Amino acid sequence: MINNSYSLIRWKDIIFKVGSDGKLIPKRDSNGEIEVDPLTGQTKYETLSDGTRIKASLLNYMDEGILYAHKGIDELKTLIRRLQIQLELDGRVPGNSGTFADPLDGSSNKLILDKALTDIIEPVEKGTTTLKVASVDGFKPFTEVTIFDDEHSEDVAITEIGLGIIKVQALKNAYKKGAKVARSNVLIDTVNAEMGVGYWQTYSVELVEVV
After folding, report:
1. pLDDT tens figures, 145-193
2. Which of 2, 26, 113, 192 would suit a FRET pair with 169, their CA atoms being 20 to 30 Å apart?
3. Which residues does 116 contact at the CB level (< 8 Å), separation at least 6?
């Protein structure tokens, strides 16, 4: 708790009287004798102002004031740092009120994994910029997606969304029919609280006649 009751001491200087000859005027007692300081043995002189005495009580008072001032500064620095961190988090994670970590345990969290995912419905060659896809739901222009199959993978930026098509930067690889286009190729393991890499695979389908 910061002590706000500190008051200024308002120190005063010692001002000596000076005679017409320009010299200090010795102080005399009622008998006209020059007074001498019993501790120092030095002559006492007449003053216009005795000034503020330096004593332990005043120095301790100053000492406490300095201590409280430093405590106040330290508390203010801590508060400012907290505000800076909060502003930084809000700035980096808009709309998430500073939430920037996901425990990956399936619990409710303000961070939401973008699970937009679709399939390429026709094989594409290297250098292709237009992908025919099963769905464009969840995809937006000027965002990045990962394209992958069982042989290749790359990240590209979406340039345009059309009816059943996603236009991207020129592909560096060729991809098979059924290759995935995903905003995130992450699989979250809530049991082990960790992220894994998404997968692409083929299935063998056997047709059986039912009589």
Report:
1. 999 988 898 999 999 999 999 999 999 999 999 999 998 877 777 677 6
2. 113
3. 137, 138, 139, 145, 182, 183
CATH class of 117-197: mainly beta
- Distance, in Å, from the CA atom of 42 to the CA atom of 35, rounded to the nearest integer, reads 9
DSSP per position, 19-63: -TTSSBPBPB-TTSPBPB-TTT-PBPB-EEE--PPP-HHHHHHHH
d(CA 2, CA 11): 24
0.70 cut: is pTM over it? Answer: no
pLDDT mean across residues, the chain: 84
SS3 150: coil
Q: Where are the domains of the chain?
A: 15-92, 117-197
